[in-house]
Amino acid sequence: MLPDFSTERLFLRPRTIADLGACLAMDRDPEVTRFVAGPWADPKAHEAFVRARMLRDWGAGLGYWSIAARAAPDRFLGWILLLPLDGEEPGIEIGWRLARAAWGHGYASEAACPIVAHAFNTLLLSRIIAEINPGNAGSIRVAEKIGMQRDAVVPAEAGYISFVMTRDDFHSTRA
Ligand SMILES: CC(C)(COP(=O)(O)OP(=O)(O)OC[C@H]1O[C@@H](n2cnc3c(N)ncnc32)[C@H](O)[C@@H]1OP(=O)(O)O)[C@@H](O)C(=O)NCCC(=O)NCCS
Protein backbone atom coordinates (compact mmCIF):
# COMPACT_ATOMS: atom_id res chain seq x y z
CA MET A 1 0.00 0.00 0.00
CA LEU A 2 1.35 3.42 -0.94
CA PRO A 3 1.48 6.15 1.72
CA ASP A 4 -0.61 9.32 1.58
CA PHE A 5 1.13 12.68 1.51
CA SER A 6 0.11 16.25 2.09
CA THR A 7 1.74 19.55 1.23
CA GLU A 8 0.82 23.13 1.99
CA ARG A 9 -2.02 23.11 -0.56
CA LEU A 10 -2.40 19.51 -1.73
CA PHE A 11 -3.36 15.99 -0.71
CA LEU A 12 -1.75 13.06 -2.52
CA ARG A 13 -3.33 9.65 -2.11
CA PRO A 14 -2.80 6.35 -3.95
CA ARG A 15 -4.67 6.40 -7.25
CA THR A 16 -7.48 3.84 -7.35
CA ILE A 17 -9.95 2.48 -9.86
CA ALA A 18 -12.43 5.08 -8.53
CA ASP A 19 -10.30 7.68 -10.35
CA LEU A 20 -10.76 5.96 -13.72
CA GLY A 21 -13.41 8.35 -15.10
CA ALA A 22 -11.48 11.44 -14.03
CA CYS A 23 -8.25 10.09 -15.50
CA LEU A 24 -9.92 9.27 -18.82
CA ALA A 25 -11.53 12.70 -18.97
CA MET A 26 -8.17 14.36 -18.27
CA ASP A 27 -6.44 12.36 -21.03
CA ARG A 28 -9.18 13.17 -23.55
CA ASP A 29 -7.99 16.78 -23.59
CA PRO A 30 -5.53 16.80 -26.51
CA GLU A 31 -3.48 19.55 -24.83
CA VAL A 32 -2.89 17.27 -21.84
CA THR A 33 -1.56 14.36 -23.91
CA ARG A 34 0.09 16.49 -26.59
CA PHE A 35 3.61 15.39 -25.60
CA VAL A 36 2.76 11.91 -24.31
CA ALA A 37 2.48 8.76 -26.45
CA GLY A 38 -0.58 6.60 -25.75
CA PRO A 39 -3.82 5.18 -27.15
CA TRP A 40 -5.74 8.41 -26.44
CA ALA A 41 -7.68 8.46 -29.71
CA ASP A 42 -9.21 4.99 -29.26
CA PRO A 43 -11.68 5.04 -26.33
CA LYS A 44 -11.64 1.28 -25.72
CA ALA A 45 -7.87 0.97 -25.91
CA HIS A 46 -7.50 4.09 -23.78
CA GLU A 47 -9.71 2.74 -21.03
CA ALA A 48 -8.02 -0.68 -21.13
CA PHE A 49 -4.61 1.00 -20.95
CA VAL A 50 -5.46 3.17 -17.94
CA ARG A 51 -7.35 0.39 -16.15
CA ALA A 52 -4.41 -2.02 -16.56
CA ARG A 53 -2.01 0.56 -15.18
CA MET A 54 -4.32 1.17 -12.22
CA LEU A 55 -4.53 -2.51 -11.35
CA ARG A 56 -0.85 -3.31 -11.82
CA ASP A 57 1.49 -3.84 -8.90
CA TRP A 58 4.47 -1.59 -9.67
CA GLY A 59 6.62 -2.74 -6.78
CA ALA A 60 7.04 -1.66 -3.16
CA GLY A 61 6.49 2.06 -2.72
CA LEU A 62 5.96 2.66 -6.45
CA GLY A 63 2.85 3.66 -8.36
CA TYR A 64 0.54 6.61 -8.95
CA TRP A 65 -0.82 9.18 -6.52
CA SER A 66 -3.94 11.21 -7.27
CA ILE A 67 -3.66 14.89 -6.46
CA ALA A 68 -6.39 17.05 -4.90
CA ALA A 69 -6.39 20.51 -3.40
CA ARG A 70 -6.82 20.57 0.38
CA ALA A 71 -9.56 23.11 -0.25
CA ALA A 72 -11.48 20.65 -2.49
CA PRO A 73 -10.32 17.14 -1.56
CA ASP A 74 -12.92 15.34 -3.70
CA ARG A 75 -11.92 17.03 -6.95
CA PHE A 76 -9.30 15.10 -8.95
CA LEU A 77 -6.62 17.47 -10.24
CA GLY A 78 -4.29 14.92 -11.80
CA TRP A 79 -1.64 12.44 -10.78
CA ILE A 80 2.03 12.04 -10.06
CA LEU A 81 3.93 8.80 -10.46
CA LEU A 82 7.04 6.96 -9.45
CA LEU A 83 7.41 3.88 -11.66
CA PRO A 84 9.96 1.57 -13.24
CA LEU A 85 11.00 3.11 -16.57
CA ASP A 86 9.10 1.82 -19.60
CA GLY A 87 12.10 1.39 -21.87
CA GLU A 88 15.07 -0.95 -21.87
CA GLU A 89 17.07 1.18 -19.48
CA PRO A 90 16.63 0.20 -15.81
CA GLY A 91 15.62 2.96 -13.44
CA ILE A 92 12.74 4.66 -11.69
CA GLU A 93 10.85 7.44 -13.39
CA ILE A 94 9.00 10.37 -11.86
CA GLY A 95 6.13 11.81 -13.91
CA TRP A 96 3.23 14.23 -13.59
CA ARG A 97 -0.03 14.96 -15.36
CA LEU A 98 -2.70 17.49 -14.41
CA ALA A 99 -6.06 18.38 -15.90
CA ARG A 100 -5.69 21.64 -17.79
CA ALA A 101 -7.77 23.63 -15.30
CA ALA A 102 -5.11 22.83 -12.67
CA TRP A 103 -2.10 24.05 -14.68
CA GLY A 104 -0.22 27.18 -13.78
CA HIS A 105 -0.64 27.09 -10.00
CA GLY A 106 2.63 25.38 -9.10
CA TYR A 107 0.76 22.18 -8.23
CA ALA A 108 2.98 19.77 -10.19
CA SER A 109 6.16 21.06 -8.53
CA GLU A 110 4.50 21.07 -5.12
CA ALA A 111 3.19 17.52 -5.55
CA ALA A 112 6.63 16.33 -6.68
CA CYS A 113 8.30 17.35 -3.39
CA PRO A 114 6.94 14.59 -1.13
CA ILE A 115 7.33 12.04 -3.93
CA VAL A 116 11.01 12.93 -4.36
CA ALA A 117 11.51 12.74 -0.59
CA HIS A 118 9.76 9.35 -0.57
CA ALA A 119 12.02 8.14 -3.40
CA PHE A 120 15.22 9.02 -1.58
CA ASN A 121 14.38 8.90 2.13
CA THR A 122 12.07 5.88 2.19
CA LEU A 123 12.82 3.82 -0.92
CA LEU A 124 16.50 4.79 -0.78
CA LEU A 125 16.68 4.98 -4.57
CA SER A 126 20.04 6.03 -5.98
CA ARG A 127 18.46 8.23 -8.66
CA ILE A 128 15.20 9.16 -10.33
CA ILE A 129 14.67 10.07 -13.98
CA ALA A 130 12.16 12.14 -15.96
CA GLU A 131 12.04 11.64 -19.73
CA ILE A 132 10.44 14.70 -21.33
CA ASN A 133 9.62 15.71 -24.89
CA PRO A 134 11.90 18.65 -25.81
CA GLY A 135 8.83 20.74 -26.73
CA ASN A 136 7.17 20.26 -23.36
CA ALA A 137 8.38 23.49 -21.76
CA GLY A 138 6.06 23.26 -18.75
CA SER A 139 7.24 19.78 -17.81
CA ILE A 140 10.90 20.70 -18.37
CA ARG A 141 10.40 23.64 -16.03
CA VAL A 142 8.86 21.39 -13.36
CA ALA A 143 11.92 19.09 -13.55
CA GLU A 144 14.23 22.11 -13.23
CA LYS A 145 12.23 23.65 -10.41
CA ILE A 146 12.40 20.50 -8.30
CA GLY A 147 16.17 20.34 -8.77
CA MET A 148 16.61 17.74 -11.52
CA GLN A 149 19.60 18.06 -13.83
CA ARG A 150 19.62 17.52 -17.55
CA ASP A 151 21.41 14.22 -18.35
CA ALA A 152 24.04 14.88 -21.00
CA VAL A 153 24.27 11.18 -21.88
CA VAL A 154 21.02 10.99 -23.87
CA PRO A 155 21.71 11.78 -27.54
CA ALA A 156 19.58 14.43 -29.25
CA GLU A 157 18.18 11.79 -31.67
CA ALA A 158 16.51 10.02 -28.74
CA GLY A 159 13.56 12.40 -29.11
CA TYR A 160 13.35 13.16 -25.42
CA ILE A 161 15.37 14.94 -22.79
CA SER A 162 16.31 12.99 -19.72
CA PHE A 163 16.42 14.77 -16.37
CA VAL A 164 18.06 13.07 -13.40
CA MET A 165 18.25 13.62 -9.66
CA THR A 166 20.61 11.48 -7.59
CA ARG A 167 20.30 10.81 -3.91
CA ASP A 168 23.41 12.95 -3.37
CA ASP A 169 21.79 15.82 -5.33
CA PHE A 170 18.69 15.47 -3.19
CA HIS A 171 20.57 15.55 0.10
CA SER A 172 22.96 18.32 -0.96
CA THR A 173 20.12 20.64 -1.99
CA ARG A 174 18.37 20.05 1.31
CA ALA A 175 21.44 20.23 3.57
C1 LIG B 1 3.58 19.67 -17.10
C2 LIG B 1 2.48 19.96 -16.08
C3 LIG B 1 2.31 18.77 -15.13
C4 LIG B 1 2.87 21.21 -15.29
O1 LIG B 1 1.91 21.41 -14.27
P1 LIG B 1 1.84 22.79 -13.43
O2 LIG B 1 1.18 22.52 -12.15
O3 LIG B 1 1.29 23.86 -14.31
O4 LIG B 1 3.40 23.01 -13.18
P2 LIG B 1 4.02 24.11 -12.20
O5 LIG B 1 3.07 25.26 -12.08
O6 LIG B 1 4.48 23.43 -10.96
O7 LIG B 1 5.31 24.56 -13.02
C5 LIG B 1 5.24 24.82 -14.40
C6 LIG B 1 6.34 25.77 -14.76
O8 LIG B 1 6.48 25.74 -16.17
C7 LIG B 1 6.24 27.02 -16.69
N1 LIG B 1 5.56 26.81 -17.96
C8 LIG B 1 4.37 26.23 -18.15
N2 LIG B 1 4.09 26.21 -19.48
C9 LIG B 1 5.16 26.77 -20.09
C10 LIG B 1 5.49 27.03 -21.43
N3 LIG B 1 4.65 26.69 -22.42
N4 LIG B 1 6.66 27.62 -21.70
C11 LIG B 1 7.53 27.95 -20.72
N5 LIG B 1 7.27 27.71 -19.40
C12 LIG B 1 6.10 27.13 -19.11
C13 LIG B 1 5.39 27.73 -15.66
O9 LIG B 1 5.50 29.13 -15.77
C14 LIG B 1 6.03 27.20 -14.38
O10 LIG B 1 7.28 27.80 -14.14
P3 LIG B 1 7.46 28.99 -13.04
O11 LIG B 1 6.91 28.47 -11.76
O12 LIG B 1 8.93 29.21 -13.03
O13 LIG B 1 6.68 30.15 -13.57
C15 LIG B 1 1.12 20.23 -16.79
O14 LIG B 1 1.30 21.27 -17.73
C16 LIG B 1 0.58 19.01 -17.48
O15 LIG B 1 -0.11 18.19 -16.88
N6 LIG B 1 0.87 18.85 -18.80
C17 LIG B 1 0.33 17.77 -19.57
C18 LIG B 1 0.90 16.40 -19.17
C19 LIG B 1 2.38 16.36 -19.41
O16 LIG B 1 2.90 16.83 -20.41
N7 LIG B 1 3.07 15.74 -18.44
C20 LIG B 1 4.51 15.61 -18.48
C21 LIG B 1 4.94 14.54 -19.39
S1 LIG B 1 6.72 14.42 -19.37
Task: Outline the structure in words.
It contains five helices and eight strands; from the N terminus they run ββααβββαβαββα. It has 175 residues and is α+β, with helices and mostly antiparallel strands. It has a single domain, classed as Gcn5-related N-acetyltransferase (GNAT) (Aminopeptidase, 3-Layer(aba) Sandwich). The two termini are 30 Å apart. The site of coenzyme A has 23 residues, from strand 5, helix 3 and helix 4.
What is the count of helical runs?
5
CATH superfamily: Gcn5-related N-acetyltransferase (GNAT)
Strand order, sheet with most strands:
1-2-3-4-5
* Contiguous runs where pLDDT drops below 50 for at least 5 residues: none
Distance between the termini: 30 Å
**Helical percentage:** 25-40%
Q: Quick one: how many beta strands?
A: 8
Strand content: 15-25%
CATH topology heading? Aminopeptidase
Number of domains: 1
What ligands can be seen in this structure?
coenzyme A
Q: The biggest beta sheet, please?
A: 5 strands, antiparallel
CATH architecture: 3-Layer(aba) Sandwich
The computed structural class is: alpha+beta
Summarize, please.
With 175 residues, the protein is α+β, with helices and mostly antiparallel strands.
Please write out the topology:
Layout: E1 5-6, E2 10-14, H1 20-27, H2 43-55, E3 63-69, E4 78-84, E5 92-98, H3 107-122, E6 127-132, H4 137-145, E7 149-150, E8 161-166, H5 167-173
Antiparallel strand pairs: 1-2, 2-3, 3-4, 4-5, 6-8, 7-8
List keywords for this structure.
alpha+beta, 175 residues, binds coenzyme A, Aminopeptidase
